[in-house]
Specification:
Strand content of chain B: 25-35%
Largest sheet of chain A: 5 strands, mixed
Pfam family, one (chain B): DAO
Oligomer: heterodimer
Structural class of chain B: alpha/beta
Shape of chain A: globular
InterPro entries (chain A): 2Fe-2S-bd_N, 2Fe-2S_ferredoxin-like_sf
Largest sheet of chain B: 8 strands, mixed
Keywords (chain B): Oxidoreductase
Protein name (chain B): FAD-dependent oxidoreductase
Strand order of the largest sheet of chain A: 2-1-7-5-6
Distance between the termini of chain B: 40 Å
Number of helices of chain B: 12
Strand content of chain A: 25-35%
Helix content of chain A: 10-25%
Number of helices of chain A: 2
Number of strands of chain B: 19
Organism (chain B): Deinococcus arenicola
Chain lengths: 84, 369
């Protein structure tokens, strides 16, 4: 099973999981914040709403469309990370 | 008077608003969402342009009308008087700035020359070595779909989500089969006008835009390279130009591209790459910013880059307000003032210029003579 890092925590998830599902299963919420500070998270789950954006290995991606891979480094967007 | 406006983009909404002000009862026919066509696809840059005396008059008057409207707009319209910097890459381009500045001043628009050092202070993220810029502080940006909705509500217009099948004497026939009668029909549905009126001299001109994530790269003005004018009005080949707009969110909206005969909505990835490379030549830090979304839209271009505003040459009671190419948001308000002047005999300085659809017939008569 792929082992990856979610906001600095190492987790193991079943192959075929999306990065979004991995984040949600790890309880990492919200995914990001709006300009005015409101919580934001995945809405459509199919790549249209762009609300599930996260940084995977340095690139901002739609996490709902991104399958997990062994060794991935996943971070929520900066505005959430700075709260940690 | 009973009026029908075909098209619920910003031009149609502004025309509905102007007609209602003179007492017309207005019905707007728009099969899609209000402001969902070219109105939503564009940058919303309110910009004075001087390619021709008529274009300068129309854009300058429209900017005055925008300034008067701005205090009434809802916050969601994101109206922001950021000004434009026309960036000169070299001394040759900078030499073209002074005549442009004089034209703007003559049209009542403030414009100042920035030398290389002043430009670097005004926009420190631009690459070093640029020659200077023309600063036009009265230009603005706006989120146009919100303005379209606002104007339709202010007009008290009835908006029906219906497509028009054809123009008939004294009204329209809807695709549903229903007939609507009116004293005046205004065709303001952009490129859709050619489906109702085949033979109009209008062509689609596709454009790409891209918006970035919020990031550390900030600019203060809408930044446009002076070479944009070559891109906008050069030959028929695909072209790109540096054109970047700061959004109130800290995102950057990046343009621009122009392509004739590409009626689809697909992203042309090689062209988008060219467009972004051009932008990064001026703003090198763009290389490190993530894109959020990119999309395309269709401008509706006329042969002389001026809109068609005025009575249809052969159809009684039919007026046109289309063909605005890349300036439909800027010039929607001037267009509406001009249309009202043509319909109701009210005053407008814009009547001094020929925006009427009939001008193309006169040209072809001359050519054929």
């Amino acid at each position: 099973m792929p082992e990856l890092t979610l906001d600095g925590v190492r987790v193991t998830v079943p192959a075929g999981t999306t990065v979004l599902a991995a984040l949600q299963n790890a309880g990492l919420s919200p995914l990001r914040r709006s300009l005015s500070g409101e919580a934001r998270g995945a809405l459509c789950g199919m790549g249209s709403c762009y609300e599930c954006r996260a940084v995977v290995d340095g690139l901002t991606v739609r996490s709902c469309l991104t399958p997990v891979r062994d060794g991935q480094n996943v971070c929520r967007l900066g505005e959430v990370n700075r709260e940690l | 008077m009973k009026a029908i406006v075909i098209g619920g983009g910003l031009v149609g909404a502004a025309c509905a608003d102007a007609l209602a002000r003179y007492g017309a009862r207005v019905t707007v026919l728009e099969p899609g969402p209000v402001g969902g066509g070219a109105t939503a696809a564009g940058m919303g840059h309110l910009v004075v342009m001087d390619d021709s005396p008529a274009q300068l008059a129309l854009t300058a008057r429209s900017l005055q009308l925008w300034e008067a409207l701005a205090p009434q707009l809802p916050v969601q319209a994101d109206y922001h008087a950021c000004g434009t910097l026309w960036v000169a890459s070299d001394e040759e381009e900078l030499a073209a700035v002074e005549p442009k500045r004089q034209a703007y001043l003559a049209a009542g628009r403030e414009a100042t020359l920035l030398n290389a050092a002043e430009l670097a202070r005004a926009e420190p993220n631009l690459r070093p070595g640029l020659a200077g810029a023309l600063r036009v502080p009265g230009d603005s940006v706006v989120y146009a779909p919100v303005v379209a909705q606002f104007l339709l509500e202010r007009a008290g217009a009835i908006v029906r989500r219906e497509a028009v099948a054809e123009l008939i004497g004294g009204g329209v026939r809807l695709e549903s089969g229903e007939t609507l009668r009116a004293d005046l029909v205004v065709v303001a549905n952009g490129i859709g006008a050619v489906e109702l009126l085949p033979g109009l001299p209008l062509r689609q001109r596709k454009g790409h835009l891209l918006i970035t994530e919020r990031g550390p790269l900030h600019v203060r003005h809408q930044l446009v390279e002076l070479g944009y004018l070559k891109s906008a009005h050069g030959n028929d080949e695909d072209s790109v130009a540096f054109n970047v707009q700061p959004r109130p969110t800290g995102q950057l909206l990046i343009g621009s591209s122009r392509q004739f005969e590409q009626p689809d909505r697909e992203i042309d990835w090689p062209l988008l790459r060219r467009m972004l490379r051009r932008a990064a030549e001026f703003l090198p830090a763009l290389e490190n910013i993530s894109a959020l979304r990119s999309w395309t839209g269709q401008r509706c271009a006329s042969p002389d880059h001026l809109p068609l505003v005025g009575p249809h040459p052969h159809l009684d009671g039919v007026f046109l307000a289309t063909g605005h190419e890349g300036l439909g948001i800027t010039t929607a308000l001037g267009t509406a003032e001009l249309l009202a002047a043509q319909v109701f005999g009210s005053s407008s300085e814009l009547l001094e210029h020929d925006f009427t659809p009939a001008r193309f017939e006169r040209v072809s008569e001359v050519v054929h003579a």
